[in-house]
Amino acid sequence: MVTIGDNIRKYRKKKNLTQKELGDIVGISNTYLSDMEIGRTNPSIKTLKRIAKGLEISYVDLLKDTEE
């Protein structure tokens, strides 16, 4: 099963961004972003949309394959 964190990491790496760089773009700490990527915490819908905007993708892309 693919998680939201897996998808965030995948799209972040496709953009060649570090966690700190994406965190700065989105306005969240790299620690919080790291926690999301490893599944320690889940983002709110508002945060998920901000991350997607920072990655220049639809927030729906971050939810794909997470419902299985």
From TrEMBL:
SUPFAM superfamilies: lambda repressor-like DNA-binding domains. GO terms for molecular function: DNA binding; DNA-binding transcription factor activity. It comes from the Bacteria. Residues 8-62 form the HTH cro/C1-type domain. Keywords: DNA-binding. One of its GO terms (cellular component) is cytosol. This is Helix-turn-helix.
